[in-house]
What we know:
Blueprint: H1 2-15, H2 31-56, E1 58-66, E2 73-82, E3 89-95, E4 100-101, E5 107-111, H3 117-132, H4 135-140, E6 164-174, E7 178-184, E8 187-190, E9 193-196, E10 211-218, E11 232-234, E12 241-255, E13 260-274, E14 285-292, E15 295-303, H5 306-347
Parallel strand pairs: 12-14, 12-15
Antiparallel strand pairs: 1-15, 2-6, 2-10, 3-4, 3-7, 5-6, 7-14, 8-9, 10-11, 12-13
Amino acid sequence: MRRLNRKGALNLVKELDAFPKVPESYVETSALGGAVSLTVFMSMALLTIFEFFVYQDTWMKYEYEVDKNFYSKLRINLDITVAMQCQMIGADVLDRANTMVALTELIYEPVHFELSPQQRLWQKTLQQFQSQHSLQDMLFKDALKGVHLTPGLRNDSPSRAPSACRIYGQVYVNKVEGNLHFTLGKALHYAGGHTHLGTLFMNNDVQNFSHRIDHLSFGEFFPGRINPLDTTEKITLEGNQQFQYFVTIVPTKLQTYELSLDTHQYSVTEQERAINHTASNGVPGIFVKYKLNPLIVRVSEEHMPLGKFLVRLCGIIGGIFSTSNLLHRLVGLFVDILCCRFKLRASRPN
């Protein structure tokens, strides 16, 4: 009785078979069918491999919201070389609230302004990366992970004394619009404003605001990122020269599978002019005027779900089978029509 039940259940399952098998004696093979089958299998293999690469890759999702963090500090990461002695130049920040930050945390290091051949090669390499990669690649992908973004030390010893000053380090300022500037002399703050002592006894012979920006970023340091002002180099022969950089900062929260940090993107425009106090007023120096965007960008790294990958894979395989079967029938019909016409022409009497 148990055997009969099993046999009946097996017959019931066989009746539910939606894929009936055709006996091999009724199947006819052809060279055209074999060629189509090979093409189908090769196409399925290639598309499956490509789809697997797509599944392995990730993409960045962008979301925007109003920045409500008003009381935090803005971190400035700086590495700039100015073609003047360290004791002759001063750096400070004056923000929109008329608050002056003397930037005493920065390090002033006497260096040579001219780069060695190895340092020049490093600079050109970074400039090439900066021109070839998009913003998204520079900020959020690991394409530049193996590139050293800090200048190497000199391997030669110039005979003359250092003629430039490298100013580098990180400082924290108020999260409002401000002006980071490097001018002649140290800063002197007073009610209603501030000035630099060097402007009181200005001498064009000792001023040279030729500079090189090796690094300028805002927020947490992101290894492998090249910023818009990195590797910027300006050379001037005029003493009363003013360089202005207008920077718009966009706060960015980055969340990937490898790191999570609060950083900032920025765009920049620049202006250069000579100060002669007749047609152009102002103070010679290097000015980085920055302002913050009220919107914050949340960037998260996303991966294709496994279920979606399997659905796409089944769609590729099923679609190829259905399309190839239709094409095979159409090609066979076309061949049969041509063959019939040739047979009819051959059978007609002359």
